[in-house]
Model the fold of this input.
Amino acid sequence: MSIVALPIESFGVSHKGCVRDHNEDNYLIEPQTGLWVVADGMGGHEAGEVASASIVDHLATIGIASSAPDLRARFEDRLSRANSEIREISRSRGITIGSTFAALLAMDGRFACLWAGDSRIYLVRNGTIFQVSKDHTEVQELLDRGMISAEEALTWPRRNVITHAVGVSDDLEIDFQQGELMPGDIFVLSTDGLTAHVSDAEIEAAVRSGTPQAACRNLLDTVLARGGTDNVTVVLVKIGGERNGALHPDRSGAESLAK
Done:
């Protein structure tokens, strides 16, 4: 059975940062099933990490899909289950908790990016970085309406207010983009702890200059050197040259530092 017709190398790191006392981020690297996810929990001490862990735990049960549409259907089913579980936890505790997420699905030479909130997905292709995802934030909505400038958005008082997340509503709202995988593509999935301190150009330079493992460590070191005001999680997925047959995860790994 064909999974992904291109070799894939991936790696991830997660760190609590320099200010927070614990890590509410979670992530998942499943190259055999064609799935990579980052999730950024919110809701106060311990509650946020419960929400992000629920997303990762449910998505980890997807298994091997029979086709790209089947993979997408399995993903949405598991995410819906996570949403219901987080909603139930919220009701039982009398608080509102939730989690942003950003996910990459890859199968049969195609990809789908899905997200809710301000965790991001970038694609570096042909020497150029593109932000595939679009933040679900109040400040992004104001930018879209032309009510504030890009410069004002950088310091807008409510720039971190999320408009969509898993677990905050019975009706789950997610966005997606899809397309064809190309040899040399590099996908970067990150929570907002990365983009608060590192520019798009710096992300591009880091991922183009080394392996996914080296690039992840480089980006994490940069965030920590600049104060690391939030939890930070980065997952890199590099698409290699064409091969016949199924997925070839040349080197995939994960690190969780000072969680």
